[in-house]
Structure formats: structure tokens, C-alpha cells
Design brief:
Radius of gyration: 15 Å
Subcellular location: Nucleus
Order of helices and strands: HEEHEEH
Number of strands: 4
Mean pLDDT: 74
Strand content: 5-15%
Helix content: 10-25%
Structural class: little secondary structure
Shape: globular
GO molecular function, one term: zinc ion binding
Distance between the termini: 23 Å
InterPro entries: Zinc_finger_PHD-type_CS (IPR019786), Znf_FYVE_PHD (IPR011011), Znf_PHD (IPR001965), Znf_PHD-finger (IPR019787), Znf_RING/FYVE/PHD (IPR013083)
Biased composition (Polar residues): 1-18
Protein name: Zinc finger protein ubi-d4
Strand order of the largest sheet: 1-2
Length: 149
């Protein structure tokens, strides 16, 4: 299992779905980004890596790769699957969506319940015309966590 300090949500994506089939695509995209200074405290509880104020125990911070804002995974209510699968974290202010790379049309947005990647319903193949009922997982996580394709 990855340690939370090695985690992040990948939000970069290709203009079409071809790159998503390449298991190294997200890693390649991550190397193209510039580094920003990281906040040393959690935006939620105001604790640091030495102490999560909510739990009173040490917990590494995840930092947004675009603005540097940070948070403890537990304060941000990340599931274990999210912590395992995230490659690069982006806070909601900087999140763009996995297939098209755009942050437009929030009303058409789905977040994967396992990895927290965002997807527009119209970018999915096949596209969705309505929000699914209950939890939704992207195809990457269906294969990784649910053994479905």
C-alpha cells in the first residue's frame, strides 16, 4: 500500500481516451508539471504532518500540485482506495477532468468514488445522460478494485 505522502489525484488527461489505456500515461503527464511551494498545514484542521488536530496523531499531508494547498487524507475524507490510487492530488479549486482536461461544466461532473478523478458525463464512452444512482467508479478503478471491466 502506498503511504499517503506518496499520494495525489491525477487530473490530467488526454484530449481523447487513447492515452488512458497506457498505464504510464498519468505518470508521464505528472513529469510535465512545475512544482509549487507546498503548504505545511492542513486546510481543514489546521494541523501539520506531526499532528492531525482532529485525530491527535501524526498524518502526512497531501498537497495540491497546482496551488500547494494541503490537507490530511482523513480530513478530506479520502477512502483507502483513493489513497492507494491517487497519483497526484489537486484541490477542488484546481481540479480538471480526466478525459478532456477541462474544468468547465461542473453540472456534468462525476467523481469516482475510489480514486476521486473527475469525469464529465459526456466524455465517457458510452456517455451518460443522467447521474448514476449510488456510488460510481471509473473504468480504471473497476479493474483495479472491483475486478470488473
Amino acid at each position: 500500500m502506498n503511504h499517503p505522502s506518496q499520494a495525489g489525484v491525477s487530473s490530467s488527461g488526454p484530449s481523447n481516451s487513447e492515452g488512458l489505456d497506457d498505464p504510464n500515461f498519468l505518470r508521464k503527464m505528472d513529469t510535465l508539471k512545475f512544482q509549487v511551494p507546498r503548504s505545511t498545514y492542513c486546510d481543514v484542521c489546521l494541523g501539520d504532518a506531526i499532528e492531525n488536530i482532529k485525530s491527535g496523531i501524526p498524518e502526512d499531508l497531501l498537497s495540491c500540485s497546482d496551488c500547494g494547498r494541503s490537507g490530511h487524507p482523513t480530513c478530506m475524507e479520502f477512502t483507502n482506495n483513493m489513497i492507494i490510487s491517487v497519483k497526484k492530488y489537486r484541490c477542488n479549486e484546481w481540479k480538471c477532468y480526466s478525459i478532456c482536461g477541462s474544468s468547465d461544466n461542473d453540472d456534468q461532473l462525476l467523481y469516482c468514488g475510489d480514486c476521486d478523478r473527475g469525469y464529465h458525463m459526456y466524455c465517457l464512452v458510452p456517455k451518460l445522460d443522467a447521474y448514476p444512482e449510488g456510488p460510481w467508479s471509473c473504468t480504471l478503478c473497476l479493474g483495479e478494485f472491483h475486478n470488473n471491466h
